[in-house]
Design goal:
This protein is of the alpha/beta class and 369 residues long. It has ten helices and 17 strands.
């Protein structure tokens, strides 16, 4: 048994590695910066917990003013509801008898809301809700250009929304559209243009439903890269940004976002070998770092580059003779994608002023079902 709590009060350099670190001051500052922004616009914040997967961080976001949270999967939502957070959106389709039964069980304990884009799925959720005597809140997901899930804007959305309205024990709350294809565009002008085009499809669909007598109470969308673009659209009622609590080197390059929020997440590594002056090997490979957005790089070293990751090893190349790292010494690595990196770890070590202040289990780690 790994007694992680025994590290509380120690300097972070004493931690065993690999270790996932959170700078608590920076994380709390990021949460407050987003909360401050939200007070300046008409939208509310419903932060996505798929980034941190941890009830205590979700509660910090709610304490700062968030109306509830967004989850990607049922397993995440179950962990969040078990922590007594009740206003939860699953921004995904919950399909199949077993998963729908879990959704219905959550509805008995929370104000669960779920996305739909299929008529048969709507009928299945309604039938299960009636059988259990519960109500389920529904958002119709609209495809606004990402071409992933979602019904097409306009008439197709109206037809599905009308079915939801007619279905027993379902409450049509509104529409959801995710502009995931625009959130990471580095150039602010290009990102703004693409986002406004995407969200306009959602706004026009809302107007279309209104003209046909359907009230659209909720308009949900947005990510960290578009929080202040989508968030400033008058028709939008909630923003689902998640990565802003931690950030990463990818979002750090997104103009207008990277300078607003700072990176609070890092992975502590140990040098395990330096077989040559120009090659350093660390104990952080693909099982603790992800690289779909590029290879993560060390923090605070010029002339040191992570060149490749294997399962358990990271290979760094040294181009500056002043880099004096030797086996046993430690350094921090900045993730390129915070969400998928978090999902590789069991716990966070919360660091304040270089000291381990808290250890939090990542309750929804691996909850892919």
């Amino acid at each position: 048994m790994h007694d992680s709590d025994s590290f509380i009060g120690r300097h972070k350099s004493e931690l065993d590695t690999p270790a996932l670190l959170v700078d608590l001051d920076i994380m709390e500052d990021n949460i407050q910066k987003m909360a401050d922004y939200i007070t300046s616009v008409n939208t509310e914040l419903r932060p996505h917990v798929k980034t941190h997967k941890t009830p205590i961080i979700a509660q910090k976001q709610i304490d700062a003013g968030a109306i509830g949270v967004t989850c990607a999967k049922l397993g995440e939502a179950e962990e969040i509801v078990n922590a007594d957070i009740r206003d939860v959106l699953i921004a995904n389709q919950i399909v199949g008898k077993y998963k729908i039964s879990r959704l219905i069980n959550l509805a008995k304990q929370s104000e669960i809301m779920v996305a739909v884009d299929d008529a048969d799925n709507v009928q299945d959720i309604s039938d299960a809700a009636v059988a259990a005597g519960v109500n389920v809140r529904i958002l119709v997901e609209v495809n606004i250009g990402m071409n992933r899930c979602g019904v097409e804007p306009g008439a197709a959305t109206l037809n599905l929304a009308q079915q939801v309205c007619k279905s027993s024990n379902l409450k049509f709350e509104g529409l959801m559209g995710y502009e995931g294809h625009t959130v990471a565009k580095p150039n602010r002008v290009e990102r703004e243009k693409a986002t406004q085009e995407a969200m306009q499809r959602l706004v026009e669909t809302k107007d279309y439903l209104n003209k046909h007598g359907l009230e659209v109470s909720i308009m949900s969308g947005g990510g960290t890269g578009t929080f202040d673009i989508t968030g400033s659209i008058p028709e939008m009622t909630e923003v689902q940004a998640g990565s802003y609590v931690f950030m990463d080197s990818t979002y750090g390059k997104v103009e207008g976002v990277g300078k607003r929020f700072d990176c609070s997440l890092s992975v502590l590594a140990t040098v395990v070998s330096r077989p040559e002056k120009n090659r350093i090997i660390v104990d952080t490979g693909l099982k603790v770092l992800t690289k779909e957005f590029g290879i993560p790089q060390p923090i605070g070293y010029n002339g040191l580059e992570m060149a490749g990751l294997s399962e358990e090893h990271g290979k760094m190349l040294v181009s500056d003779e002043d880099v004096s790292l030797s086996p046993g010494e430690k350094l921090e690595i900045l993730p390129t994608h915070c969400c998928t990196t978090v999902n590789l770890h069991d716990r966070y070590y919360g660091i304040r002023d270089e000291i381990v202040e808290s250890v939090w289990n990542i309750a929804a780690r691996g909850k892919a079902q």
